[in-house]
Specification:
alpha/beta, Aspartate Aminotransferase, domain 2, 10 strands, 12% strand, globular
């Protein structure tokens, strides 16, 4: 956690706050803490404070967006069809599949198939979810192109973006402007775990999924996690204040990490940027967020590599961190057309604002050696 976020959490917890929905003095302290955090988040993403809905996680925010848009459309007499890209986080994929929605193809670079989107874009479509920056590959989607298709062919459809991975690296005021619904989660940018946000633009209408006391503008009931929300707001303000510097510094470190590994292990495949086996040379350049280093090592199993790395103090993942430990290779790489045997050797390395030159030196001294050890053992 960022120091500012931890400080805000401790101060809020020590303030003797009450329930923000109450009327007494301690309730007013709590309400002020929540309102201040709401203002901080709104400023960070280019939204109005009334558009900021605090949730319990990014997963809850994603679920509220998909189910909320669907149920509102059904209540209006429409079929409420939903769709998402094939490389979404399971917090989006599973709700879409539960509603028998459409999962849209992507190419080998992880970019959405816009022709398929156009083919399903009708008045029956309630919401399309397209992740702004992929949590595994780091690939950035062009939301303005998705927005243009919906405006022309499905003007009643909402555009949702899971920006959980994007928020630390991209200015959502610009990059998420085409979206009606935007999800975020505190733990991705130095804030607390267990606090998420869904931005619901004033032009968008969704149905609440958690009913009760009518908190959060009657879109998400439940007593507020005041200390967590205050911490989320402080982290958002601190992160946006130094994001440009962090992106430049971490992007350089990421490039050194990837380049250093490929210099020792030239058959390494960087997801979305390098050609796949039996594929022509890549001619399209994709944009990635600065903190994502996702690579595939032919001839090894991720599980064995992760075990070796953990023993020397390097903590990485194979696919989504929520799915680490699963035996099946990444659904993201599968959707991008990666052969199963190549995807089985994937490594997802995340850099953050606290990553140092020494961290990269350590990784470069250990990771190639571990891969070579595993290859020798399998020979």
């Amino acid at each position: 956690m960022r120091a500012e976020a931890l400080e805000a959490m401790v101060e809020a917890a020590a303030a003797g706050y009450g329930n923000p929905t109450g009327a007494h003095h301690r309730a007013r302290i709590a309400r002020r803490l929540v309102d201040d955090a709401r203002d901080q988040v709104a400023d960070a993403v280019g939204a109005e404070p009334s558009e900021v809905i605090f949730c319990g996680s990014g997963t809850e925010a994603d679920n509220l967006a998909i189910f909320g848009a669907h149920h509102h459309a059904v209540a209006q007499g429409r079929s409420g069809q939903v769709a998402c890209s094939a490389v979404e986080h399971h917090a989006v994929l599973h709700p879409v599949e539960h509603l028998a929605g459409t999962v849209l193809r992507v190419d080998s670079h992880g970019q959405l198939d816009l022709e398929q989107l156009t083919s399903i874009a009708t008045d029956d479509l309630a919401v399309v979810s397209v992740m702004l920056a992929n949590n595994e590959s780091g690939v950035i989607q062009r939301l303005e192109e998705v927005r243009a298709i919906l405006d022309e062919h499905a003007p009643n459809a909402l555009l949702h973006t899971d920006a959980v991975q994007a928020f630390p690296w991209l200015d959502l005021t610009e990059y998420a402007a085409p979206a009606d619904l935007v999800s975020m989660s505190g733990h991705k940018f130095g804030g607390p775990k267990g606090v998420g946000v869904l931005i619901v633009r004033s032009r968008a209408q969704i149905a609440a999924q958690i009913l009760g006391g009518g908190q959060e503008f009657e879109l998400r009931s439940g007593t507020h996690n005041v200390a967590g929300i205050a911490s989320f707001g402080a982290a958002a303000a601190a992160m946006t204040g130094d994001r440009a510097h962090v992106v430049e510094r971490i992007g350089t470190l990421r490039d050194r990490l990837v380049g250093g590994i490929k210099a020792v292990l030239p058959d390494t495949v960087e997801s979305a940027r390098d050609a796949l086996p039996n594929q022509d040379e890549v001619t399209t350049t994709v944009d990635k967020v600065a903190g994502s280093a996702h690579m595939c090592f032919p001839g090894i199993e991720s599980e064995a590599l992760l075990f070796m790395l953990e023993r020397v103090g390097i903590y990485a993942s194979a696919a989504s961190s929520c799915a680490s430990g699963a035996q099946d290779p990444s659904h993201v790489l599968a959707a991008m057309g990666y052969p199963r045997e190549l995807a089985a050797g994937s490594l997802r390395m995340s850099l953050g604002f606290g990553t140092t030159d020494e961290d990269i030196d350590r990784a470069l001294s250990v990771i190639p050696e571990c891969v070579q050890t595993l290859r020798s053992a399998a020979a």
